[in-house]
Amino acid sequence: MKYCSECAHPVSLIVPPDDNRPRYVCANCGAIHYQNPKMVIGSIPVWEQDGEARILLCRRAIEPRHGYWTLPAGFMENNETTADAALRETAEEAGARIELHELFSLLNVAHVHQVHMFYRATLLDLNYAAGTESLEVKLFTESEIPWDQIAFPTVGQTLKFFFADRASLKNGGSYGLHTHDITTSMRQRDY
Amino acid sequence: MKYCSECAHPVSLIVPPDDNRPRYVCANCGAIHYQNPKMVIGSIPVWEQDGEARILLCRRAIEPRHGYWTLPAGFMENNETTADAALRETAEEAGARIELHELFSLLNVAHVHQVHMFYRATLLDLNYAAGTESLEVKLFTESEIPWDQIAFPTVGQTLKFFFADRASLKNGGSYGLHTHDITTSMRQRDY
Fold first, then answer.
1. Cβ neighbours of residue B144 under 8 Å, at least 6 residues apart?
2. How far is B55 from chain A (nearest CA, A)?
3. Please, what CATH class does the domain formed by A38-184 belong to?
4. Where are the domains of chain A?
5. Distance from CA of A2 to the nearest CA of B (A)
6. Across the A/B interface, how many CB contacts are shorter than 8 Å?
7. B38-49 and B52-60: which strand pairing?
8. What global pTM score does this model have?
9. Contact B3 A5 (CB under 8 A)
10. What is the pLDDT along chain A (191 residues), one digit of tens a residue?
11. How far apart (Å, rounded) are the C-alpha atoms in residues A174 and B91?
12. What topology is assigned to B1-35 in CATH?
């Protein structure tokens, strides 16, 4: 940020009075321009068949991580709820209709100022189709998942939590909320 | 937003190519200025005594809702995790040391572009003290809580969820994650 978005005067990075960290402050109009983390919200669309869970993944048509696989997810928008965002991103990126269940994972990615959240979901039909941000959309069983071609650590970690919880069901386990901090990137160049 | 923060040129609110909602776009340098929801993170600091839970609340010394009671909470900052934010806000507003437990509530306040989250926590000692944003800080049992003087609907709802879960413990219940959408303001003038 170089200029005040309210009056176009150059801003300075200083600690405002009664604050304890540097902010972009406008000496002309007095505006303080706060910068805060963003939320990336998605779903884990599950299709159950022959006693096995298949997960709908999207191969990214955009940077970062073009060509890599991800759960449908994206930046939460103003005027929507976290559940709205999960439904919207799943429709936009995977053309998929889902029934949303509870919040399943919350992952902090502090070094890029993001919090990622994924809802567990049931895929309602097989009429999914790649949106403009996806090259292809496909169902994967646990053994079929391309673990070395997953776009983001938060997606890989969420898939691991999902299959661990699912395996625990037969021993009386259940799905629960998983919180996790990502402290290093899967591939250093991407973050 | 009136001017581009990168080049000081006036911005226009238009739908960019390959997008589906209006953004502030700079016709001079091409920057798209996205605006996204913010996270407000806090804690529920609990002090157990004589078989009763006492919750630490802060009376606000700042607007909005000056003079009303809140759980310690505030805007999450860049470079921190949600847990970091809960610990920091509890220290700043209530001068309190806590042990953080699991995420307890996530509340969408879509009409003000916010998501509020509260962690369950144990107050570690009674050496708390009002920070610069609090007039006073005080422990309340459930019956003592000033329900009609709670600053924000997300705080009142979180306290209700907390005491309901706590009451369920003696019947084999447990604390769980509560998600909830706030669709109207407690007092219209405040949101």
1. none
2. 24
3. alpha beta
4. 1-35, 38-184
5. 5
6. 110
7. antiparallel
8. 0.95
9. yes
10. 999 999 999 999 999 998 999 999 999 999 999 999 999 999 999 999 999 999 999 999 999 999 999 999 999 999 999 999 999 999 999 999 999 999 999 999 999 999 999 999 999 999 999 999 999 999 999 999 999 999 999 999 999 999 999 999 999 999 999 999 999 755 544 43
11. 35
12. Ubiquitin Ligase Nedd4; Chain: W; (2.20.70)
